[in-house]
Amino acid sequence: MTIPVGIIGGSALAQCAGLADVRTSHPKTPFGRPSGPLSRGRLAGCDVFFLMRHGPEPRIAPHRINYRANLRALYDLGCESVIGVAAVGGITSAMTPGQVVVPDQIIDYTWGRTQTFYDDDRRGALDHVDFTYPYSRSVRQALVEGAHYAGISVEDYGVHGVTQGPRLETAAEINRLANDGCDIVGMTGMPEAGLARELGIAYGCLGIVVNGAAGRTGNDTIHGQIGTRLERAAIDAEAVVGAAVAML
Ligand code: HPA
Q1: pLDDT class for 164, splitting at 50, 70, 90?
Q2: Which residue's alpha carbon is at the smallest distance from atom 6 of ligand 1?
């Protein structure tokens, strides 16, 4: 029996079309239920659990997702590594629509989300987890090598600014994120990465740029760009994740 890899699919990978021999479960955790069913199956010959971050329709908004239940369910099912796939907006010049990116840093701008397992619900000694490098080296490496294997161009760096949503940002907010050093912006990267670290799960993010961030779309609208990119983003994301799980 191999150790399964967890895959949390977002807007850029709402379904995992290539998943074979699928069995579905509806686990409960001490933190409630995850966003949707957990699909266990084989992807590129590897044992994986796939979870839709936003759940089945109607989609759960980024600030309403039960991130703790999602991570805890994957942990309870034995996942030691998790890949979080995220559609993101591009801020810096290399991050144009269609670009695949494996970020290496995070700035968290979210608020009011439950950020930790260390509250009344959790027994055990408080651990101020080291989050200097928020993403796992091994998962990042698998994602970058997976992209190379799949023949997909990848940026293997990037500061991931995570905003509260669900509205998109203003142009001034994006300028502020750019000044802070952010390369991409999304709404779901935190607290997902921090909670994974608290559980000792090796976590990496696969970002797919689906639009220029606010004020960086040229003559296009943000939704126009997203509309034309999402389908391709899912194909690329699945190709990279499929190749990456084989390396984990
Ligand atoms: N901003 C925040 N989240 C996003 C974006 C964006 O421009 N695109 C996709 N997710």
Answers
A1: very high
A2: 89
